């Protein structure tokens, strides 16, 4: 009876030793977690540069957990796949893209090879559709060599900024899934993140700034958007996940400069045919909170509040109309998706005008009507007299 038990114990010990010596097991110290991927393109040489920003996990539990092991490596090739495979020659690690949160595309690559980049990303099984796509001013490789201002991992810092975008509205980041859905649409464009370096106040080294947007139309990069233009895209977009938008608005009311915290507008689009052609009206209702002012105002007076609300409405209208002029006249691209609205709710009119949309859109009048309602004026009704 004891002999079978001994043989069983010896066999179990052998299996344990054999498993520990298996070549199929990847040690944690042999893995590089790719957190950000960069793609550049050298038009003169016709070469792609593929860059990986990686985190090297700690091999032992005794190492300090607050010490980050960052590694940036790049390689070039005749295609994106060739460059990505050539990166293996520089990597003594098993590269894992399961945690990749961002794809940073260099400016030149966005201008000359964006179709090929998107095609590669949507075909690759290693790349997540939820990864954010950002366009870098200059080269992505140079951008990924920067350090975050918070001394956190660069990927974590960018993710935090992306999550906080709705709190100021001057930066937009789309996922690969969003871009792949809009990429093939010949009628509308889209806006995603703009990444650049900047020497902030009190900093000796350049830091990364996620501000403004990069505009695309018919699969091509067409230019940069500033913060105000990006805010217009936020306000007039029909994406439900952007309904938590908040942004600051400076308004001059009588003799005072007042800062309001504006909340995501409720909006209605109205399409009509005029003698000059198609036209649109946009009715916006926004709620505002009074945050500060530089001199006393009798804000308990209904007349004062109404005057302040009208001034805020005019400010919103002028800002959006200025952005629309740039979208229509400079870019000649429907970055707001107005064609989507016409196609969905006015299908008969759309069928007659879609073939001439590129000619009609730049000249189409879009009238903005902004109605602002002050809902919270703070604990002080008036700062005058006390």
From TrEMBL:
Keywords: Germination, Lipoprotein, Membrane, Palmitate, Signal. This is Ger(X)C family spore germination protein. It is found in: Membrane. One of its GO terms (biological process) is spore germination. It is a lipid-anchor. Residues 24-192 form the Spore germination protein N-terminal domain. Residues 1-18 form the signal peptide. Residues 211-375 form the Spore germination GerAC-like C-terminal domain. Belongs to the GerABKC lipoprotein family. It comes from the Bacteria. One of its GO terms (cellular component) is membrane. Its main location: membrane.
